[in-house]
Amino acid sequence: MLERLMSNLVILSSTLLGCFSFLYPFFSPQFEQTPSPAGIRVSEMPLTMTLILGLCVVALLFESQQSAANARFVALMGVLVALNSVLRYIEVAIPGPGGFSPIFFLIILSGYLFGSKFGFLMGAMTLFVSAILTGGVGPWLPSQMFTAGWVGMSAAALSPLISRLGWQGKIGETVALAVFGAFWGLLYGAIMNLWSWPFLIGPSDQYWQPGISFAETLARYGVFYLVTSLTWDLGRSLGNVLLIATLAPVTLRVLRRFRERFTFVYLAAEV
Fold this sequence. Notes:
Radius of gyration: 19 Å
Structural class: mainly alpha
Mean pLDDT: 88
Strand content: under 5%
Oligomer: single chain
Number of domains: 1
Low-confidence stretches: 264-271
CATH class: Mainly Alpha
CATH topology: Arp2/3 complex 21 kDa subunit ARPC3
Distance between the termini: 20 Å
Shape: globular
């Protein structure tokens, strides 16, 4: 019980840290804005990276100590993270259209089947390991880890809804997951823009300035997103839908077998 409580607190701390990392510029605008994204947040990266990695490691340690089944799930997560990192390596070698990336497919399914903590860790660790493999390490990486973690964490909310509707193993399950993937394909980009947007200088109708109202901030960001990001994010959104529609049914069957097998082995050992 204590291990589970501590694990939940660690994930909550990670989420709060991520929110602070994205939003603090709007509340403490004591920084220099620039027309170029080069050099933005470089000084923050070591501390933020250390904190999120440390929290992920602590969460994994607590999870692995709860039960034999949880330890096996941690091992399964390692396999899925490695597989997803290879998929991102292929994506970098053979770029897809727009912001398309195959990594969100497994992050969403993992969070949906194994819960919010598993989903958060799956998303965060996938971005970290794949960044090392692809040379994508930079000041943006902690923000990518937070956001991908939220994708997996929020996918867990679909599980009780789909179960209540009786859609498990049916077309409704795939449709719900595909809609979720389409939504996060856009939202991931909208959140990640906030990593740099407050620090940039540009046309006054698209960029933030210290002292403007909340409504004006939303209006300017809306214009900025439509002009710079929507087309790119549509590639990610449509890619998520395509992968989930074609691969989710068979992948879910395989992952459910792992889940049932691990649970069965743990219960048998307890008898």
